[in-house]
Design brief:
The chain is of the alpha/beta class and 305 residues long. Helices cover 50% and strands 11% of the residues. The protein has 13 helices and ten strands. The longest helix has 19 residues. The chain is globular and about 55 Å long. The model has no long low-confidence stretch (mean pLDDT 92).
């Protein structure tokens, strides 16, 4: 099966360990495993075999989501050492000085709570105090099968994401976590430079021969709830920003949080995207050029044990 391998967070040096992050040594171990057991090919080569449907079954490409600074500082040198070219999918609001809270919230819960479940416990206490009706709604509606196919999520992870994505709207969710951050004196401005890539980072990655792609503008966790017009605005705005920075056409993307619908595919075709990636292997067959499956690095890690 030909697919992508999906990476997000890395730790080491000035970049602390966060939920789901891996260190350079483990990443290197993964690369050696993949080079031994698979054929790592460049983004352009991968696009070519997808378009022509000429799969041998062992081709993979490496993908990095979210424009996270640790990817550039810790991992880019390793890719260059092995002459591996990869996809880097960027959401562009961070380049305009308005990064989504998603990374701030992850950073906060990992820095201020020894265990992720301690954060969840505090979150539900605040949920009950601030939005008691929503807390009752969560108890009534929680679907224990939500995201169950994503094996790298624990039961607690899945319940939290159900609450965030289904029970609460974005404004309510942000209000709760912002209140928690204020209580613990978390300062966004102090952490910004450690979390997000800058315009010069994007240019450097592009200059090294890697492929920069879309990941929407504001990184909504449920973009599939957006209508056609809103999705068009998200993707076309992001594409224009990246093309202006790099002075070249952008032709690749990954679906934020793996979510998309028919409108998403229509929008992406309209704006000239040639290949798009999902965030799982639930459907292993490549249904279309815009629905290429990816394996999360956490699942890959289990194969190395």
């Amino acid at each position: 099966m030909s697919n992508g391998i999906m990476f997000h967070h890395f730790h080491g040096g000035q970049f602390p360990k966060v939920q789901g992050s891996i260190g350079k040594k483990k990443f290197l171990k993964k690369i050696i495993y993949l080079k031994t057991n698979k054929k790592i090919i460049s983004p352009k080569e991968f696009l070519n075999i997808v378009k022509k449907k000429k799969f041998k079954g062992n081709e993979i490409c490496l993908t990095f989501d979210d424009g996270i600074r640790s990817q550039k500082e810790l991992i880019l040198p390793i890719l260059d050492k092995f002459n591996i070219k990869a996809f880097f999918f960027i959401y562009t609001s961070m380049l305009k000085g308005k990064p989504d809270n998603l990374e701030y919230f992850r950073d906060f819960r990992c820095l201020f709570y020894k265990k992720i479940n301690f954060f969840y416990k505090d979150f539900y206490i605040n949920l009950k105090n601030i939005f008691p009706k929503k807390e009752s709604e969560l108890k009534l509606k929680y679907d224990k099968k939500y995201l169950i196919k994503y094996k790298f999520y624990s039961k607690e992870d899945r319940k939290f994401r159900f609450c965030r994505d289904v029970i609460l709207n974005k404004k309510e969710y942000n209000f709760i976590v912002e209140k928690m951050m204020k209580t613990k004196k978390y300062k966004k401005e102090n952490r910004k430079k450690y979390l997000f890539m800058r315009t010069r980072d994007i240019k450097e990655i592009d200059n090294e021969g890697h492929t920069i792609g879309l990941h929407s503008h504001s990184h909504p966790t449920k973009i599939d709830n957006f209508g056609y017009k809103l999705q068009y605005n998200e993707y076309s705005k992001s594409k224009k920003i990246l093309e202006k920075i790099l002075n070249k056409k952008i032709w690749a993307m990954s679906h934020p949080c793996g979510n998309y619908n028919k409108n998403s595919l229509k929008v992406l075709k309209k704006i000239g995207i040639k290949i798009g990636f999902r965030s799982n292997l639930i459907i292993k067959k490549i249904k279309s050029n815009l629905e290429v499956p990816r394996e999360d690095h956490a699942d890959l890690l289990r194969k190395l044990r």
